[in-house]
Every structure is written in structure tokens, then in C-alpha cells.
Design goal:
It is built from 13 helices and 15 strands. It is an alpha/beta fold. The longest helix has 22 residues.
């Protein structure tokens, strides 16, 4: 099979769909890989690295796109819609619930679009979302600590505090992978940490991890209203598979937060769980609304592309190899991969995405 690896075009997105080591595996299995020149440079991989792995370097994006299987990291942007073709396999993060325009385009062009974030195993794990969620959770605290600095517009709070001065308070909405990793970082810094979640079993599991170092609270509207105004750093870590994230923090609650507090909404790629949040970019990552600093970069792991690209490939390569070896028949061989299909044959096939856009049903 011919496999294309285009250069990512999202603002300061330096990750790449395949590493040279992944290319080597594919070429050793008699597949042809076409990598757009410079696609891996931001992650530390040169064109020569890809050539040595057996890839062919192409100078134009269209020459990487117009292949049977296209492997990316982020969703196609508007300038890339023209490259999408019927009978083509697209394997990447899509997050369609937050992007009606892309959803409509995928339906119109007839591409088979498989989303990393909805590939789901029999044990209900998300193997292709998890590695980026780990990174995003850790970065949420790292970025939050930065923007709490006064020079960055924050309150001027050191999350870890010092003897005689209280540490910063970190409130995390959601105790999944993102929330857990954010808590690890915040606890490591010495912050006061609270996690809110609706899953009592998950809260019990988190107690085995953190003990008394983290306050674990059942999430409901009254609890959120009581806790959020006290937060120096609020992290949105809510995930509802394939659907738009629920709004848990309304504007009136943001208004009650201290000026210079920081919100990092990792759920922004699924619409965000804070009403005042909208997507930003690595170039312009924050804005101030209601006196609170908002960080809404939807591709946070792109800030650490060397780490993130390799972590992603460790998980995606087995699925890429199945698609390359078997084409769409791979969906019959692997139920987890089949659950990743969002759009196929000019229609939405993933039930969660269809719930978001019922009017687009065929």
C-alpha cells in the first residue's frame, strides 16, 4: 500500500504522523511511504532519516496526501480539504464533535476517516488517546504554573509555595487520564490539589494512588460552585467519548474566581467544559476574560513534539500496519480499530458523533 505522511499545518504543530522507525517497519513489510519534505523536522527527524528508513521524500503536500492511506496527527484544516478523496483512508485525530465544517467535508468527499481518539478496546480503554492525554495532563500544570506568573498576567503565585506561605490551589475537573497526570504534576510541585469526578469507583482508585495528598470529591453542580472560586489553577479534564464536553463551569462562576487565576481547559478540542473558553494556539495561547487567564490550546502535546511523536507512534503503529496490510478489511479483523471509524461512504458511522450532528444522518 502507498502511505502518505503530510507535514502538519496547524499553528506550531511540530508532531509528525510517522517516525523514521515506524517507516522502517512499514517498508520492511513491502509498503511504500511518501513523506512531505520537512514533515519531521520539528520533532527532530530529518528528511535523510526518512530516506534511510526507506521512505520517499516528496516536495509538495498533495504528493503526500494523494495516497491510499494518509497518516497524520491533527485533523485536516480547510486548506487541506482539497486533498481528501473518495476511497482514501485517513487515520488521525479528528475530534469531530467540535468541528461541524470538517464533519460535513468528510461526508461530502467520501473519505473513510478513522479517528485516533475513538479507537476503543474491549476493556473500554482508548489506546491512541491515552499517550497524548498523559502528556496533556502533565503539560496542563506546567503551563498553568507559567501563566500564574505575574509577568504572564497571572496572580503571581508559586504553586508549591514556601514554608510560611501557602501553596497554590489546583482544582481538576475529571479524574481520568488527564486529571490523574495533572494531579501527579501538581502534587509533585507541592500544590494543594482537589479532583472532582462523578465516578465513585474512579475516586476510590485515585485514593490508592494519592492517599491524603489529594482531596477527592464527588462532582456535582453545588460542589463545583463551592470549589472553583477558590482555585488558583483550574484544569478542565472532562472526556465524553466522541461527544462535546459538557459545560461544567458557567460564566457567572468564572466571575467569582480571583483576578489573575488561570484556567487550562484540556477538553477544548471537544468544545471545552468552561463556558468562557475558546480555542487558542501555541502562538497566542492565552486571553483574559472576566479577569481570569484562559489557556485553550487544543493541541497541547505539540509543544513537546520529540516526546509526543514517539509516544503516539508507539501506540498507532500496530494499527497503521494493519490498515496497510489489509485495507478496510482490517476493521473486520480488529474491533477496536472498527470503533475508530467516524465517517465512511458519505455518512457518519460513529454513534457519538451522530448524536452531535443528527441532521447530518444519511
Amino acid at each position: 500500500m502507498e502511505i502518505g505522511v503530510p507535514k502538519e499545518t496547524k499553528d506550531q504543530e511540530f508532531r509528525v504522523g510517522l517516525t523514521p522507525s515506524s517507516v522502517r517497519v512499514l517498508t520492511e513489510n513491502d509498503h511504500k511511504v511518501f513523506v512531505e519534505t520537512g514533515a519531521g523536522a520539528g520533532a527532530g527527524f530529518s528528511d535523510e532519516d526518512y530516506i534511510q528508513a526507506g521512505a520517499k521524500i516528496v516536495n509538495k503536500a498533495k504528493n503526500a496526501w494523494r495516497r491510499e492511506l494518509v497518516v497524520k496527527v491533527k485533523e485536516p484544516l480547510k486548506d487541506e480539504y482539497k486533498f481528501l478523496e473518495k476511497e482514501q483512508l485517513l487515520f488521525t485525530y479528528l475530534h469531530l464533535a467540535a468541528d461541524r465544517g470538517l464533519t460535513e467535508n468528510l461526508i461530502d468527499c467520501g473519505v473513510s476517516a478513522i479517528a485516533y481518539e475513538t479507537v476503543e478496546t474491549e476493556k473500554n480503554t482508548l489506546p491512541l488517546l491515552t499517550p497524548m492525554s498523559v502528556i496533556a495532563g502533565r503539560l496542563a500544570v506546567q503551563f498553568g504554573a507559567r501563566f500564574l506568573e505575574r509577568q504572564q498576567g497571572g496572580r503571581g503565585i508559586l504553586l508549591g509555595g514556601i514554608p510560611g506561605v501557602r501553596p497554590g490551589k489546583v482544582v481538576i475537573l475529571g479524574g481520568g487520564v488527564v486529571g490523574t497526570e495533572a494531579a501527579r504534576m501538581a502534587v509533585g510541585m507541592g500544590a494543594q490539589v482537589q479532583i472532582l469526578d462523578v465516578n465513585v469507583e474512579r475516586l476510590a482508585y485515585l485514593e490508592t494512588l494519592f492517599g491524603s495528598r489529594v482531596q477527592l470529591l464527588y462532582s456535582n453542580s453545588l460542589q463545583i460552585e463551592a470549589i472553583v472560586p477558590e482555585a488558583d489553577l483550574l484544569i478542565g479534564a472532562v472526556l465524553v467519548l466522541g461527544r462535546r464536553a459538557p459545560i461544567l463551569v458557567r460564566r457567572k462562576l468564572v466571575q467569582k474566581m480571583n483576578p489573575g487565576s488561570v484556567i487550562v481547559d484540556v477538553a477544548v478540542d471537544q468544545g471545552g467544559c468552561v463556558e468562557t473558553m475558546h480555542p487558542t494556539s501555541h502562538t497566542n495561547p492565552v486571553y483574559v476574560e472576566e479577569g481570569v487567564v484562559h489557556y485553550g490550546v487544543p493541541n497541547m502535546p505539540g509543544a513537546v513534539p520529540w516526546t509526543a511523536t514517539q509516544a503516539l507512534n508507539n501506540s498507532t503503529l500496530p494499527y497503521v500496519l494493519k490498515l496497510a496490510n489489509h485495507g478496510m478489511k482490517a476493521l473486520e479483523l480488529d474491533p477496536a480499530l472498527a470503533k475508530g471509524v467516524n465517517v465512511q461512504n458519505h455518512r457518519i458511522v460513529h454513534p457519538a458523533v451522530l448524536e452531535v450532528f443528527p441532521d447530518l444522518a444519511s
